[in-house]
Design goal:
The protein is of the alpha/beta class. The protein folds into 2 domains: 7-186 and 360-378, Glycogen Phosphorylase B (Rossmann fold), CATH 3.40.50.2000; 202-358, Glycogen Phosphorylase B (Rossmann fold). 40% of the residues lie in helices and 20% in strands. It contains 14 helices and 14 strands. Strand 1, helix 1 and strand 2 (39-49) form a beta-alpha-beta unit. The chain is globular and about 65 Å long.
Length: 379
């Protein structure tokens, strides 16, 4: 470590924002912000394809970013193994040039974890992996992915998981890292501020419009409760496979069409604003490895309705929300009606305080840095 005792961390993520306002991989930026008071963060992020081939360097307040790509055109399937080899060679060449690295932190196992493993041997430093994959069956049910993930995870000094549920999924797959730690994810509680006490009679959904997330089911539930609560509105934030089915549903439902706003994909500040203007979040996803949008809503002080399986049930209880069977539209409808009738019973300040203490940048950053230090001391 350097003279002012800041830890020099090389971060290698599978995903990272392409531009300011891009939400892809934005959670990694939250990690960097939370640890920046204690760390000099260097990010090495590579993609197979990008608009420009080569390496670019950008310096930010919380990290230095080294971005590289191999091709400016889409790579044919049969050439991908060769291009991935070039990806590893390029990433290794850049990574081995970094000086005074104390620890490597990969976000993802197969690509970023493998490159981190190779660089840890070259730089003679420990490496850890934060696994975000959900559901983990996407890895465990593929023979090649499962065995390569097992090899890399068991080489890592530790595997951090973003929920207890994900930890259990990994262990059930007969993968046994040297150490596995439930770290959860950081939440930007400064951006997602406490909302005013004003009720806007607005329900909010935020997330990819993929079927398993449940936006279309929530819309059907809203339709069912419309006659009873005709003065309530519904905002859907996101884009994905259910976007057109949602539009088609609304076109056949003139009674609710004017009460539903569909924004498309928004930036984090824009999502925060939508939360400020809403009364509760409904997000009955089938599977979440963590559920960042849920914790962001809770940070605003919104109660939530979530699916009754996987990670969200680790931090959603009767004090801050309701859980429902993810695919039962009648139960989702009932939960939304119950939430409307009891909305004044939820304590927004208390809901927010729990998120700050568990996932806020200050507490999360200190915990992660203590994890870094524990492995640096052993090396």
């Amino acid at each position: 470590m350097n003279s002012i005792n800041k830890i020099n961390v090389l971060v290698i993520p599978d995903l990272f924002p392409k531009y300011k306002g891009d939400v892809q991989g934005i959670f990694v930026v939250d990690y960097l912000t939370s640890t920046s008071p204690y760390c000099n963060n260097t990010v090495l992020f590579g993609r197979l394809t990008s608009d420009k081939i080569g390496t670019s360097i950008a310096k930010n307040d919380d990290y230095d970013l080294y971005r590289f790509s191999i091709s400016s055109k889409k790579v044919p399937f049969y050439l991908k193994p060769f291009y991935y080899l070039l990806w590893f060679i390029k990433g290794y060449q850049i990574g081995k040039s970094f000086k005074n690295i104390d620890i490597i932190h990969a976000h993802g196992t197969i690509l970023s974890g493998t490159l981190s493993y190779l660089l840890s041997k070259k730089l003679k430093v420990p490496f850890i992996i934060t696994e975000h994959q959900g559901p983990f069956s996407m890895t465990s049910e593929n023979f090649w992915k499962r065995n390569w993930t097992k090899f890399i995870m068991q080489k890592a000094d530790a595997v951090l998981t973003v929920s207890k549920h994900l930890k259990e999924e990994i262990i059930k797959t007969e993968i046994h890292p040297k150490q596995i730690i439930v770290s959860y994810n950081p939440v930007d509680t400064d951006l997602f501020k406490l909302k005013s006490n004003q009720f806007n009679k607005t329900i909010l959904f935020v997330g990819r419009l993929d079927n398993f997330k449940g936006a279309l089911r929530c819309l059907e539930a809203f339709d069912r409760m419309n006659e009873k609560f005709s003065d309530w509105k519904f905002t859907i934030v996101g884009d994905g496979e259910d976007y057109q089915p949602i539009l088609s549903y609304l076109n056949n439902k003139p009674s609710i069409k004017s009460k539903v706003k569909i924004t498309g994909q928004l930036s984090k500040p824009e999502i925060s604003l939508e939360m400020q203007q809403s009364d509760f979040l409904v997000f009955p996803s089938k599977h979440e490895s963590f559920g960042l949008v849920i914790t962001e809503a809770l940070s605003v002080g919104l109660p939530v309705i979530v699916g009754n399986t996987t990670a969200p049930i680790e931090f959603v209880d009767s004090e801050n929300g309701l859980t429902v069977q993810f695919d039962d539209i009648a139960k989702i409808t009932s939960a939304m009606e119950s939430m409307i009738l009891n909305i004044s019973n939820y304590n927004a300040s208390k809901i927010r305080h729990e998120i700050i203490s568990k996932f806020g940048f200050e507490s999360f950053g200190k915990n992660l840095v203590n994890t870094y230090r524990s492995f640096i001391k052993k090396s």
